[in-house]
Amino acid sequence: MNNYQKWVAFDTILRRELRRFMRIWPQTLLPPVITIILYFVIFGQLIGARIGTMSGLPYIQFVAPGLIMMSVITNSYSNVVSSFFGSKFQRNIEELLVSPTPNWIILLGYVAGGMCRGLGVGAIVTVLSLYFADFSIHSLPITIAIVLMTSLMFSLAGLINAIFAASFDDISIIPTFVLTPLTYLGGVFYSIDLLSDFWRNLSMINPVLYMVNAFRYGIAGITDINIFWSFGMVGLFSMVLFFSALRLLENGSRLRS
Amino acid sequence: MVTLTKRLPHHQIWMKHLNSKKQPALSIKNLTKVYDDSFQALKGIDLDVAQGDFFALLGPNGAGKSTTIGIICSLVRKTSGSVTIFGHDIDEDFSTAKQYVGVVPQEFNFNQFEKPIDILVAQAGYFGIVAKVALERAEKYLKQLGLWERRNDLSRNLSGGMKRRLMIARALIHEPRLLVLDEPTAGVDIELRRSMWEFLKEINQQGTTIILTTHYLEEAESLCRNIAIIDHGTIVKNTSIKALLKQLNRETFIFDTRQELSSCPVITDYPVTLVDSHSIEIEVLKTQSINEVFVALSDQNIDVISMRNKSNRLEELFFDMVEKNLSAKTVGQNDE
After folding, report:
1. Are the beta carbons of A12 and B170 separated by less than 8 Å?
2. Is position B180 within any domain?
3. Beta-strand (E) ranges in A47-192?
4. Which domain holds residue A97?
5. Is the predicted pLDDT of residue B8 greater than 50, yes or no?
6. Total domain count for chain B?
7. Residues B208-223: pLDDT tens digits?
8. Alpha carbon of B78: minimum distance to chain A alpha carbons (Å)
9. A220 with A226: CB under 8 angstroms?
10. What pTM was computed for the model?
11. CATH number of the domain within which B272 lies
12. ipTM of this model?
């Protein structure tokens, strides 16, 4: 396969992914938007008005970046995990496995699909958040870089989950018991300065904390942790996940008999 | 010197062309497969399929047919041995080898929520074929296989036969030189099966090498030129259909009679069995003449109104070989 053919294969996988989540938009695009609106109404306007400020910001402005990032994380992850596992379940992943498409192109195609959905929902939520909160962008390059890296990282994690999954239960266990707690405890709704030393130190092993803080820095200019650390950690996690996913595809683990 | 340097590339190209013509479409050497549960599906099989052949791979359930096909199209990882497709090793040159193969699996393996046209164009894309060309080819194959009118329906709404034809169209979309079909007509009605046979014959006549596994031995007999019988992970026979049928030394015919038969007629040297009051079975050796049977029946005032083979000729050989293989294994086990 020459480079142009590889590009065609990548483009095909990506278009198929885009078509998939656009076709079922009431399942893929609408629910996260409604959920985030509810978060803004309840935590931002109703409860947030009584909380006052957090790290020097009105509470709604404090939670807005976290809520945007939460929607990017969950949608990037769930798009890849459900699409890839669905292909495994229906066995149409074999269409790709019998083709000369290299594994790294398969990986990039699915991950790009996940990123498109994650970033698309993130963009919709950002536009909606402007209705509830006033905020300006502190640093556009940092905001864009961290949101891209976060989406990439969770798309890769979703792919690994899908490769290992043997049943539909397996693709809901990780989001329910790992992803949701990590997101809720990742500084979306509070500053880790409010925590005791033990819980603060424990929070430092949560990768979501780094992403939310770097994103909040990009938008509002405040952060609980050094943003270079944030980029370093997200970059490291992404690289580990990328090579792990690629190795799993190369080995054919749980894909080929 | 100048002439030589000019002629050398042409010579090399010509030699390459000659060599590529000689190369088998598929060459399998000492192929083994042991699954994770220690089940040995293939025990070192060797198989060559010539370019342009229509080849049947037969065997009972669990014999190793699907494992062999799975390895050829890289859905199953081999334990040892080598597989080359038109001279390209599936390990060392997987990209080229895969370009040459189209596969129609036994079970439906497409996204049931996609349209046939989208499935075909996407499959072409995975082989690096641009959408414009893919759409032209999709139209060609969907029309040839009678699916063009249903191109925009959800695939899950297609009938079983249509789904099978969709998989054939998908396997052909990148115009492979080797088409592998794993029981393509399973569950397909007779009329559709015949039309699929015609289509496959046409594809083969145009130069595509076809390997077919099937449970319908009549299918293998009427389509294929060469045959391999696989059983318990070993090739027990690899020959031409003609040569195989020559080995058949006895056939059983069923004669339907006009008169009601109260007892079984007796014909010297021909074993006769009464099936029911209007039909009898008669075994005829290759060295005997069927005319003698007609004469004998006529002498007994029995009118024959029709006659047919009891079973497919290849079927008789197939069961004979598989049974022999099984009894040889049983003897071997007893010896141990």
Report:
1. no
2. yes
3. 53-54, 57-58
4. 3-251
5. no
6. 2
7. 999 988 777 777 778 8
8. 9
9. no
10. 0.79
11. 3.30.70.1560
12. 0.82
